[in-house]
Design a protein that fits this description.
Elements (H helix, E strand, L loop, with lengths): L2 H35 L7 H36 L2 H17 L9
Helix pairs in contact: 2-3
């Protein structure tokens, strides 16, 4: 394998690690921004637009990823006796947040 090919793979790995490490920082400030900071009242037009364009698609991806992880971990969850807890956390909670939460309401 040539060195430029290795650099390309390492660049993707580094970008992925940076993205994943920034998620914990973003999650800590999300509550402030949604609950009266940048979007004003919960359920306002700005909050609904942000929810429809950004949050719902990301939540949908999270639901699909959680379902995939649940499916992969199902044999281990069954053996460990925590299949219901795994289903709740990995599938049902993200699905409720994506599909049952009112538009523009972030604390559901």
């Amino acid at each position: 394998m040539k060195i430029p090919a290795l650099r390309k793979h390492y660049s993707w790995l580094l970008a992925l690690l940076l993205l994943l490490s920034s998620q914990s920082w973003a999650g800590s400030s999300v509550h402030y921004h949604f609950s009266g900071g940048y979007f004003g009242e919960s359920g306002s037009g700005e909050a609904m637009a942000f929810d429809a364009v950004i949050i719902r698609p990301v939540s949908l991806v999270t639901t699909v990823a959680g379902s995939a992880i649940y499916t992969i971990s199902l044999p281990f969850s069954l053996l460990g006796g925590n299949e219901q807890a795994a289903r709740e956390k990995l599938v049902l909670e993200p699905a409720r947040y994506t599909f049952k939460r009112p538009l523009g309401e972030f604390e559901y």
